[in-house]
Each structure stands twice: as C-alpha cells, then as structure tokens.
Amino acid sequence: MVKFLLVRLLGTIPVLIGVSVLVFAMVRLVPGDPIDMMFTNLAPPSPEQREQIRKDMGLDKPIYLQYTSFVGNALRGDLGKSYRTKRPVSEEIRNRLPNTIKLTIASLALSTLIGVVAGVMAATFKNTWLDFLSMLVAIVGVSIPGFWLGLMIMMLFSVKLGWFPVAGADTWKHLVLPTVTLGVLASAILARMTRSAMLDVLNQDYVRTARAKGLVEWIVVMRHAFRNALVPIVTILGLQIGGLLSGAFIIEAVFAYPGIGMLAVQALANRDFPLIQGIVLLVAVIYVVVNLVVDMLYSVLDPRVRHG
Amino acid sequence: MRNPLEALSELQSPIKRRTILRFGVAGIGAAFAAPLIAACGGDDDEESTSPTATTASTESGSTPETDATAPAGDSEATEATGESEATESTGESSGEEVDRSKVGGRLIWGRSGDSDTLDPHHTTASISWQVFSQIYDTLIGRNMNLEFEPVIAESYEAAEDGLSYTFKLREGINFHDGTPVNADAVKFTFDRVTDPATAAPSASWLEMLDSTEVIDEYTVTLHLKGVFSPLLGNISIAYFGIISPAAVEKYGDDFGINPVGSGPFKFKEWVQGETITLTRNEDYVNVRSYNDNKGAPYLEEIVYRNIPEEQTQVASFETGEINFFAMPAQQIERFEGQSDYTLLKPDQSTSISFIEFSIVDNGGTLEFMAPFDDLKVRQAVAHAVDADTIIDRILQGTAVRNYGLMPTGNWGYTPDIEEFGYHYDTDKANALLDEAGWVKNGDVREKDGKKLEVVFWTWNATTQERIAQVIQGQLAEVGITAKLETMEVATVLARLAENVSQMDLMGWGWSESDLLFMMTDGEGQLGLYQQYSPEYKDAVVAGRSTSDMDERAAAYLDAMKIALADCAAVPLWSAVSTWGVRSADLKGVKFGPQGGVTYMDAYQEL
Question: Which of A117, A260, B45, B444 has the most CB atoms within 10 Å of its CB?
Fold first, then answer.
C-alpha cells in the first residue's frame, strides 16, 4: 500500500514539471513582446523603462534561468503581479478561490445525488419507462451547452419568476442558479456512466448468487452491485471535478459569480498573462491532486488494486 | 462640469498615443460584440460596457459610443449642438428644483469589467475613468456648446502670448477628507502628473506644460513651453482632476484604492472584481451650466457592478439588479418604446471609425503599400463601401455617418465635410479601378497577371468582425478580393507596424480636436501620415499652436480636406453608445456635452 502510494506520488512529479513547462511556455509563445502587452492600455514605455522592466522581470536572463526562477517563485507561492491591477496574483486568486470551491462542492454534491440515483434506478429498472426517461434526460443534458442552459435557467428563475438573483455572490441565493446549472450538466454524464457500470455488475455471477441466496432485491442492488460499480463511478467523479472547474469558467462568467472562473475569463480578455498563468497552474495542480486522490480511493474500494 | 469623455466607451477612453487611443476605440467594437480590454461583449466585448464611443474592441467589453447627428464644431454649428436632442432626459426634471426630502436612491451600473485603479495618474482605462470622473473635479469643463466653463476655477485667463493660463479658484471648496482645495493642491496635482517618478500614462497629454506656479492661495498659473491650444481641453478631462495632497501623503501607493477628490461623489467601498460604491458628497455645490441641480447629488450612491456577460447584464436590468448600462445594439429594438425603460442615444461621439491603408518606407520615401500606392485604387475602396447600410443593419443605428476624421462630438467637427467625402457609388468604384488598369476577369480584377488581392485586418470582436465581413463583401462586388484576418485587439495593434496587411478597420477616440494630430503622429498606417504629407502636418500643427478658435477650426477643416483628397483613410462613422435606464425607478439621467452622461440630476423617488 505504502509502495503504491509512493509510486503514485512520484508519478505526479513529471506531470507537474510538464504542466509548469507548458504554462511557462504559453506566455512566451504568444506573439509580441510581453512588455507591449503590459502597456496595451497605457502609453508605450520609453526604451529606458523597457530595459528596466526587462531587468525587473528577469527577461534579460537566459530562458532556462527564467524557467527555474519561475518555478522557484511559484513553489514559494509567488506567482508574480497582475499586469492590470499590480496586485500579487496569489492574492487575487486567494480572494476568489473560496467562491469557486463553494460552487464546485455544491454542484458536485448535487450532480452526484441526481446522477447516481438516476443511474442506479435506470439500471435496476432497465427497459422500463423510468430507464428511458432518465436516459433521455441524460442525453439532452450531455448535449446542452452550459452557457445556454445557464441563460435559460436565469430567464426562468430570475427574470420570469423572480425567485433568485441574476448576478453576484452576496447571499446563499446567489449560489443556487450556478449550482443548479453546473450540477445538472455534470449529472447527465454521471447518470449514464452509473447505469452502465451497474448493468455490468448486475450481470455478474456473484449478483446471481446473492439473489439465489434469497436476499432482498434492494440489498442486492446496494450492497452487492453498487459497491462494485463504485470504481468506474469514482473515476468519473474525479474527472467531473476537473469538468466542474472548467465549467465554472463559463458558468461563473454567465452569472457574474466572482470566482476564479470569472477572474480567468477577464484575465484572458485583458491579456493579463501573470494572472492567466497563475490560474492555469492552480487548476492543473488541482487536477493532478484530484486524480491522485481518486487513485487512492480505488485501493480503498477495490482491494485488487492494492495488490496490482 | 461633466467629463466630456463620458461618452467614450470603457475601452475607448481617452488615451494618449496612438496605440492607446486605438485600443480604446477598439474597445468599442468589442462592446458590441460582447465585452474587455479591456475589452469587451460576448466575450468579445469585454471591454465595452462603458458609455462612449464605439469603435471596436474589447475592450473590453466595454463600449458604448456616441454618435452624432449634431454638428459640434465650428462656430456656426455650435448652436445646433447645444439644442440637439442630446439634452433629452429620462426624468421630468427640466428646469424645476426637485424636492430633496423625497428623492435619493442608487444608480446601479452594470459594466463588463472592473476598474484597475482609481488613481487618475496611474491609468488610462476608461472603465476606471467612469468611476473617478465622479470623484475628482477638474479646473474647467465644457458647456453644451463645447465652450469652456468653470468648475473648480471660478475664471481663467490666457496670457496674450498664449504661453500661460491663470486660474482663479472658487473659495471654500473642500476635498472629501476636509482639506481645502487651493492653489497648492492644483500645483501638487500637476506636478505629480508630470513628475517622471510618477510615470503617469496621461503625462504625455501635458507634455507642453512647463511648470505650475502658485500666485496666492486661490490663484495658480500654468506655464507652457510653447503655444499649445489643446491644453484647456485636455485638462478638462478627469485624468487631470484635482486630487487631495493630504490623501496622497496618507495612503501613498494605496491612493488608487482610497481616492480622495472634491467631486460630487465620495469613494466608499471597493470589493475587487465585484463592485465599487460611491456615496454622495453632501457639501457639493454644482456649477455646471447644463444641470438643474446646483447642490449635492440627489442620488445616495452610485454602484458600479462587474457583470461580464452582455446577456446577464440584460437579465439584471430586467430584474432591477442594475438600473443603468450600455445597451447592446441587438437589444435596442426589444426595449425601445417600453414605458419602464428609457434608451438614451447621444448624437455626439468623440470617436471615429475608419478604414486605413498601410504606409511603408520605400528606400527613404513613404508610399502607400501596393496596390494602394495608386490613389484611384484607394478611392475605389472609399466608393465601394456602403457605410449607411452597415450603420443601419449591423450597428442598429448606434453610429452617425461621418465623412471626415473629426468625431462628431469634438469641437472642429462640421457636417459640411460631407461635400468633400466619398459617397457609396459602385459605378464610380468600378470606373476608377478600370482607369487604374485593373481589368475584370470573371469576378476578380487583374493587372499584369497579378490579382487584385489585399490583406484586411481587424480585431475579433463579434460586431467588428461582422462589419469587416460586410466590407469584404462590398469590396468583392467591385472585384477587390480582401482576405480578412482577425485577431485579438492587442495583437492587431502590436502588429500593425509590421505592414503585413494593406488595409485595416480601425477606430480612435479622444475628446480634444488635437486627435487629428495624435492619430497621425505614430508608427505604421495613418500614424505615418504626417511624414507622408507635409501639408497635412502643417495643418494639424497649426491647429494645436494657435489659440484663435476660428483659426483652429479652419486648420482642422483644411487637414480633413487634405486627408480626404489623398484618401489616406476612409472615414466611416462616429459610434455612440446607447444607454439603458430603468426609468420606472431611476429618473433624471441625461446627457452632458460631447455625448457624455450626467448623474447630477438623477434620482429615485423615495
């Protein structure tokens, strides 16, 4: 077990190095001088100013030194300063991150609830109207663009019914519509995956054995089948967190919900590279960590993984 | 007095040098599409939320514009401007004093973006200007006829030689922190802007300012390095509003998040990325001629909310979460004529949109880039483009046709320029191309085996792209193949000087008529035009170096005529923003000079 964890942990290192290289390269590969980008909305700097900034930013150093100092600073939590507001990127992200975490957790909970319940029901009552209905809804859910769904939900619940506010994050009410939008989108795929995982398991010999023992059907479904279907479901859940984070980029902007998604969208619009760089790095790290956690969960859920 | 630039869109704020100005304008376009530079719109418009001019970018989302039907410029035209519908208001406030015990409330403004800083010496973003123009008052402002009128200054006098201006300040005005507004504060402000250590991006607008001299407690003189008539216009913009020296001392680098001025609204709170709240300055005395309210604002607060998506702004407007915003062009039809809403459409704008041709250095001599080195080919483009249709169909009327380069809301604009401009006429365009030796072969024209193909750049905001596509189609009608390439605003601006494109769709905005000098004094495209045409240079230099207003007007008219004769650019329109006001609960919002919005008469009934 310890060895497995160690191997997995070590495995994240090349991934993180790859991520840092990509993020670092991203800013350097954009056409144009980064200093021009810093001054897009300002009077162009004089040649002396330009030299000074180049020095301050370390742009006069060889590229590998720039990379190592970027990584060194990032490890110490220093992600540079936003071009636009001149405030530290880490501070900008810290101000917004709690909102996004709230939204991600709420929508993850909602999508898990809807998705898993719908999937289990659909599998259990395979080929009934319940199955067809849940899968129809799931297909529609997978196909709808998040942006559009968010606007429709907004039109209905805010503009027409007046139940929830359109934009902002001041009260719990502001959290409801973005959560529903993200949660519904994420639950669709989860419902489909849960259904097929369950169907797979329900056809196994041990389920037939459990039924033959005369166990009540719901015990068979929950204890014998669902427990074994959890491995693929957890994998999807892990991927969902990544999906929810990227979905939050769009949905936060739609609902003017001040999380890192909205921060990222506006940073892109402003070509605020240090800020974009910081957010991309953060999201990539979250992704890696979540995957690590998922891998660990496998070994809890499925003893075979521990030995494999 | 209100900042004349209010009319500019967020992105379009007045910025100095070409890149900035261009960018700003670009913002306008973005606004239409979807907003941010700064940009602006869908997502394209990130920068375009502000009121202003529209040209193009992103700015961000942000960008409204003004447009004008009214002539704003020379002496004869001025009167018309004053009476134009720009004064239309949402409330029934005209002329009468409003009962202060029954009014107050909040103006909640939805914008696609947040300000960067409220220190006027550390930004040129119009989205920041929108806020701090309410916090800082300037020495002088403009009235509806675009003449200067006092704000902090009670009167001013120009020296005979035009080399200095002396301002007599009104006594008894205090900054929001209680310290007095006096000659020392004025000197402190101008010294801070021009101090190289401040690195103020707006300093270049004051490059002709030599020194500021305190004569007595309420008298101050600005000394110039040479005659520079745009000075008064430039210092009437809030970038040069008077700031509290005590507050700068107290907050240091944090002055930008603790701004203190003497304007109608005081800074209250800034939740980064979300809202900025200003509150009424109870002690305010308003001397602007175009407001009925001569005391403190009626409004309790102005709240600036960051709502990036255009659709979300519209929904918030319908639910009342915001009651004021720059209305996207495609939404205008829906809200027009509804009693709960009022649309404010200015007829003046401080921006100009145009097609420009690349100028290149051919071994020491400047020339337009082939095939536009032939005047007839440039003129053919000018006759092939149907600007009126674009204004009508794509801009939904949020722009005013302009045949010259001077924005409709600037002093020096005259509708008479139409007679020197290019009108839509495909027969003429075809004839010009035939004369130039470009022969039609099927749908394409050729000369010496070469096809008439050009690269056409603009930025990738939705509305901007649609406009460019229509122009592309109109050029194809006369046999010119324009290969349209779009990229982000900042990239377009940064790469223009590479001369990859023969033509581009561009926009600029600035409220002082010196704009004609500024946009031809840079690098690439129209920025090289002063070098290309010494006659044009003489005209715009004359425009900035005489203080005789008639001479200035004549100089700018000459300059515009020279540029049109050369067909150095194809002026298209001055874009205007349309403002949505929830008039069911917000009244009295109206236009000040140059298409800017004024909030002094605005109120909610309690």
Answer: B45
